User: Fold this.
Amino acid sequence: MDDAKIKDLITATLESTPKDATHWSTRSMAEHLGMSQSTVSRVWRAFGLAPHKQDAWKLSQDPLFTEKVRDVVGLYLNPPERALVLCVDEKTQIQALDRTQPIFPMLPGTPQRATHDYVRNGTSSLYAALDIASGKVIGSLHARHRATEFLAFLRKIDAEVPADLDVHLVMDNASTHKPRP
Assistant:
């Protein structure tokens, strides 16, 4: 395939959309330019093009956003003396799965083996506080995801951090972080 046809394909991919769809498929682009679907696929792969993928973002409407970002980044880069800065987050709805049979360990020439079937044991929520400076993590698992469990996690942090340190928590605005009015 000559360079002019590749250029036409890339230009059409980046600068146009089909009349009857939101994005090009390999089939529709091949038909549009009179080339094979496999050729379109190879060129897209070679140039890292994926018209079917889309990223999204949201710009903050907070008028103090820039100042808040500077405060948080400054806290990480230059924490106050006698203070601990923790990045707090949670992973909810972790599936607690267990295999129906024991897992056979890996041996030389044989990979680890496990049955394909499993038993569901509900879900768990993992709460974690990362000390960026040391890499230490304070974590706990909870069966539910409510403000009650988050408060228990905060109490755990309080118990594990030396009393002579101030604690700064950096976290999102999840509903579990705020008491109900």
